[in-house]
Design brief:
single chain, 15 strands, alpha+beta, nine-stranded mixed beta sheet, about 20% strand, about 450 residues
Length: about 450
């Protein structure tokens, strides 16, 4: 174990679990070097099914240079409909080639527009819209450009196999898809990756923490202000101006048009007569899309989760098997072959009598040790893991009841597996990693162990 990059430590990822020096290099030199394909799990009816019973058109999109939110906006504009009628199962990156599902309420196949950088394939109709998480996982094929120490990848793989409770080469199977090349099974902490918080400007968790504390003004200012050196100079100056003056009318002249969410918030504040109060700041936050509102709170929960995992690492507690007091979840038996998919609706507390039997389930990929994404219904663990969870919440000044929030900000919470295991296929010329991850897990939590570089070079 060794210290992580300072930018990662700022979002709760304090360590790498592999000691070997990283291969270096960078990702996304070309969009074709970062390929992501959803492992789909959503049933459809034929496209000619009755639209009254099946009003949602479902299609598969392969996107080049499109952020999911931006593509949804472009699609809704072309169709002349509300953006809220466009739904998807998982958010994908802009600088990549991504394949994912979308649903559109009330659309017909001939309505779909031609969009540069998008290939659309109509699959059928559904009685409900896609919801976030309506997929089993994602398959990745990623090329590392200009690695400095490519030979180190093999040693890192061995270390990650050991961390996952596996011997090198054990449980080798599919990597990237159900019938891909044989790989080596590895395990890494199931951190929330840097993009959860913002790769260049990690502030979404700060917004969420302020919301959970009832500080609506602080939440807005965390998003509008907070200039960082990773942004263009003009953007930094605009954010500094907002922080220093709170002159909302002038801010509209200074904040770039491309920062449309910031501008939506500023418009709400500029339209208000007099000094804005908490309700006005809350209304400004509610100007952004509903999924982004939820993301703010989710980022705060994710930050706390990362801190809990880092503390468990510090204490030397295992990730691949339980200790007394842990809460485990069991596997989803309907997951695609080669993919370990936790089912966090099936939880069990592990007392001293059950440690050995649950350990055997964990060894076989049938159970997973969890930590909480804290919400109103969260029940914390017992034993040493319970101490960790309570200490992190105390440090952040949070309580599960704090997530009893209005509208899209409300969260009941859940639990999440601490360890993610995958079968990884490694090629050396060019250095390429192919693997599949369950939904909600981040490719960067695997890649950070291999490259050990500034997170900007991972994103």
């Amino acid at each position: 174990m060794r210290p992580a990059h300072p930018t990662e430590q700022a979002v709760g990822m304090d360590h790498y679990v592999s000691d070997t020096d990283g291969v270096g290099g960078r990702l996304r030199e070309d969009d074709e070097h970062f390929r992501v394909r959803e492992l789909e799990r959503f049933d459809t009816e034929p496209v000619d099914a009755a639209t009254d019973a099946y009003p949602h058109l479902v299609f598969r999109a392969t996107l080049r240079g499109w952020d999911t939110n931006d593509f949804a906006s472009r699609l809704s504009d072309a169709l002349g409909i509300s953006r809220e009628r466009v739904n998807w199962a998982g958010t994908k990156d802009k600088y990549a080639v991504t394949t994912q599902l979308f649903s559109v309420y009330g659309a017909d196949p001939e309505d779909l527009p031609e969009v540069d950088g998008a290939e659309l394939e109509v699959l059928g109709r559904a009685g409900r819209n896609l919801e976030f998480g309506d997929l089993a996982g994602n398959a990745f094929e990623l090329v590392v450009s200009e690695p400095e120490r490519p030979a180190n990848a093999a040693a890192i793989t061995d270390e990650l196999a050991a961390f996952g409770g596996l011997e090198s080469g054990d449980r080798g199977g599919s990597a990237g898809d159900a019938d891909g090349d044989d790989g080596t099974s590895i395990g890494v902490p199931n951190f929330f990756g840097q993009q959860r918080f913002g790769s260049r400007r990690p502030v979404t968790h700060e917004v969420g923490l302020a919301i959970a504390r009832g500080d609506w003004e602080g939440a807005v200012m965390a998003y509008l202000g907070n200039p960082t050196g990773a942004e263009p100079e003009g953007t930094q100056e605009a954010r500094a101006f907002v922080e220093e003056t709170r002159d909302w009318q002038e801010a509209l002249e200074r904040v770039p048009n491309r920062l449309r969410y910031e501008r939506s918030m500023i418009h709400a504040l500029a339209e208000h007569d007099g000094e804005p109060g908490p309700e006005t700041f809350r209304a400004a936050l509610e100007r952004v899309p509903s999924n982004l509102q939820r993301l703010f709170v989710h980022a705060a929960q994710s930050y706390a989760f990362n801190l809990m995992l880092s503390e468990r690492l510090e204490r030397g507690l295992p990730f691949d098997r339980p200790v007394a007091g842990d809460v485990v979840c069991f596997s989803d038996t309907d997951a695609p072959d080669g993919l370990e998919l936790p089912d966090t609706d099936r939880l069990q507390r592990v007392d001293e009598r059950r440690v050995d039997s649950v350990t055997r389930h964990c060894e076989r990929g049938r159970a997973f040790v969890t930590a909480p994404l804290v919400g109103t219904e969260t029940e914390l663990a017992d034993g040493e893991q319970g101490e960790i969870e309570r200490a992190v919440l105390d440090e952040l000044g949070l309580d599960p009841a704090d997530f009893d929030l209005p509208g899209e900000f409300h969260s009941t919470g859940t639990r999440r597996a601490m360890l993610v295991r995958t079968d990884l296929a490694l090629e050396t010329e060019p250095l390429t990693l192919a693997f599949a991850l369950p939904k909600g897990s981040y490719a960067t939590v695997v890649l950070r162990e291999y490259l050990k570089v500034d997170p900007v070079d991972l994103g």
